[in-house]
Structures are given as C-alpha cells and as structure tokens.
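Good morning C.,

I know you're traveling, so I'll keep this short. The sequence:
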Amino acid sequence: SLGRLGRWTEAEEVHRAVAAERVRVLGPDHPDTLASRYEVAFSLSRTGRTADALGEYGAVAAGRTRVLGPDHPDTLAALQETAFELGQLGRHAEAHQVYTAVLAARERTAGTDHPDTLRCRHNLAFNLSRLGRLEESCRMAYEVAAARARVLGAHHPDTLVTQYEVAYVLGLLGRWSTALEIYRAVTTARARVLGPD
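The tokens, ready to paste straight into the viewer:
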C-alpha cells in the first residue's frame, strides 16, 4: 500500500522489518523470507538505490535457486530484475548475459508466448539497443510487439510499451518518419486505454 502511494522509502522499511521477522521465524531461505527480500530490492530500486537493489536481487536469486531450483518462475523473476539493475548501472554486457539465460529458461519452461517470456524478450531488445546492436534490437522489438498484440491485445499497455521501444530504436537508426508514425499510434492508443493525462 505504501508503494502504491509512492512512499517507497517507508515501504522498504516495512518490507525489511517483515524480512527480518521471517528470517527469525522461518529461516533465511524460506520462500516467504525470500519474497520479502525481493520486495526490499524492488523498493530500493524505486528509490534509486540501484547498486543496493542489485545486491539484494542477487541474494534472492541465489536463495531461490537453492530452494526452488534454477528454472522456477520466482527464481527467474529475481534474475530478470538482476539484469534490469545491471542495465541501470550501465553494465549492459552483463545484463545481456543474464537476460539471455533467463529467456532460454522461460522459453523452455513457459513457452515463447507466455507474458513473462515476452517481458524478458522486450527487456533483452531494449538492452540490445544500449549495446549498440540497433538492427537486432529493432527486429526483436518488432517481433515482441507482434507477439504481445497477438497474446495480450493490440492496445494492452505492455504491447504499447514495446511499440514505443520500436519507435525509439527506429529513431536511433535515423528512420524518423516511421518512428513518428508509431509514436503517434502509441499516443492515440495510450490516450484511449490509459486516459489523456
């Protein structure tokens, strides 16, 4: 509730207190304890403490790997957030390695069209652009946008986020007229789905 109100520092304090109590009662590797630590990491990320969030996500991923296994959806979620934080720190090559491993596991366990798999592919496409691999990024983002439209709907917020990323990369490639068309379509769809403000 505090997080939904944007009070992330307070949310982190509460999550940290719950995590400490869960360590005491359930142990450090209990799935509920690790879930609380995941929320601590998320709160740290929201307050701009990226390096701290990275460390916490890494610890959660290691614990979940031990307890739940390397391919469990919760383990993969922690690894995917680890990759995101690496990217936030400008460590895009490391992020690419983690995203690639998570994507392979998600495709193997959940399938190519699962929303979590598509989210990972979206993040990987975004990260490819940060590595300067613009054509590859654009191609993957187009594929993800099409898959999200098919699976989630053409005007789903996740579909629109990926379409926005396609436009962004097209701009980096100097294809401004096509980028502008997509930006306008995304703006219109977002106004209709999310409201004009």
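Safe travels,
E.
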